[in-house]
Amino acid sequence: MNKTLPLVDNIHIPQMGFGTWALKDAKQATLHALQTGYRHLDTADYYHNHTEVGQAMKDSGLRREDIFLVTKLYGSTLASAKVGPAVDRFLKELGTDYIDLLLIHWLSGTPAEESLAAMEETRAAGKVRAIGVSNFEAEDMRAALATGLPVCNNQIEYNLEVRADDVAEFCLANNVTVTAYSPVKVGGRAKARKLVANLAEAYDSTPEQVTLAWLMAKGFIVIPRSNNPKHIDSNFRSLELTLKKEDVAALDASA
Ligand SMILES: NC(=O)c1ccc[n+]([C@@H]2O[C@H](COP(=O)([O-])OP(=O)(O)OC[C@H]3O[C@@H](n4cnc5c(N)ncnc54)[C@H](OP(=O)(O)O)[C@@H]3O)[C@@H](O)[C@H]2O)c1
Predict the structure, then answer these.
(1) pTM for the model
(2) Separation of 181 CA from ligand 1 center, angstroms?
(3) Is 18 in the pocket of ligand 1 (CB under 6 A)?
(4) Percent helix, strand, coil in the chain (nearest 5)?
(5) Cα-to-centroid distance, 113 and ligand 1 (Å)
(6) What is the DSSP letter of 48?
(7) Architecture of the domain whose range is 4-188+214-242
């Protein structure tokens, strides 16, 4: 069971995705994730692994429409004349004819309105199904939404240690889904770490499962990354873990 969240225009995104940044063997790990049940892959031009991710999708034997594919444009491809050609290259590298969700990886010189307008053209051309952003602060988000374009996702760092609640709250209040990146990053404040360890024991689960279940209970999409098949499997099983409301509240208060 991989719960989905509504994104935009009757498009749904699996709440649990697989992060592919800096994997030792991106093709093998991504294939294992797909075989485990993940149906949402998070890649980026910056990760230089489109070919491996595309190959894993092909080798999985899954139908293209059963996989939700996210990738991102970064600095040198954000100018309006660069977006279209970059998307065409991504499609070739990924071996697909559409991207489910295309994000601005981070703001870097080109105004967001310019990139988003060009991204919208790729959406109108059927090469991309939805558009969004990443690493946007609340102010950036406000400007992105003011364009009137269907910006439906902000991918931000959110974990036990880094909690951009102002951004997350602003996004959720404005129907913009939030993807928590680096969700199981080691760290976190001592208080949070101790609480997670106690909860893991109480729920007979792992600290990473508790952390992922907490983030999903808060309505976030999560994209844990792992090279280790056991971790890929156990992270996925956090979908089966429902934390009690008071435990979610205690984790919220552990910052
Ligand atoms: N938009 C952005 O700017 C941005 C920035 C950063 C990341 N991201 C995306 O978010 C994804 C996830 O973030 P991330 O890769 O930074 O960090 P992460 O997924 O939070 O953590 C990955 C690390 O945690 C370990 N790990 C994973 N599951 C574990 C488990 N069950 N038990 C113990 N250790 C575990 C992994 O080691 P093993 O391999 O040994 O399991 C790896 O070292 C990225 O892959 C990328 O797709 C986006």
Answers:
(1) 0.98
(2) 8
(3) no
(4) 45, 20, 35
(5) 30
(6) T
(7) Alpha-Beta Barrel (3.20)
Pairing state between β 68-73 and 4-8: unpaired
Query: What atom of ligand 1 comes closest to residue 228's alpha carbon?
Result: 41
pLDDT for residue 185: 81
Q: Which of 28, 58, 54 is nearest to 43 (CA)?
A: 54
171: CA distance to ligand 1 center in Å? 23
Q: What tokens appear for 11 in the block?
A: 């498009």
Residue 178 CA to ligand 1 centre (angstroms): 17
What Cα–Cα distance (Å) separates residue 132 from each residue in 1, 147, 195, 220, 238?
25, 12, 34, 15, 26
DSSP state of 238: G
* pLDDT tens per residue across span 100-134: 999 999 999 999 999 999 999 999 999 999 999 99
pLDDT at 234: 98
- Is 205 close to ligand 1, i.e. is its CB under 6 Å away? no
Q: Is 154 in the pocket of ligand 1 (CB under 6 A)?
A: no
For 240, counting Cβ atoms within 10 Å of its Cβ (0-12 exposed, 13-18 middle, 19+ buried), the class is: exposed
Q: Is the CB of 228 under 6 A from ligand 1?
A: yes
Q: What gap in Å lies between CA 60 and CA 231, rounded to an integer?
A: 19
Which sequence spans correspond to the domains of the chain?
A: 4-188+214-242
What the block records as the tokens of 39 is 């149906």
pLDDT higher than 90, residue 207: yes
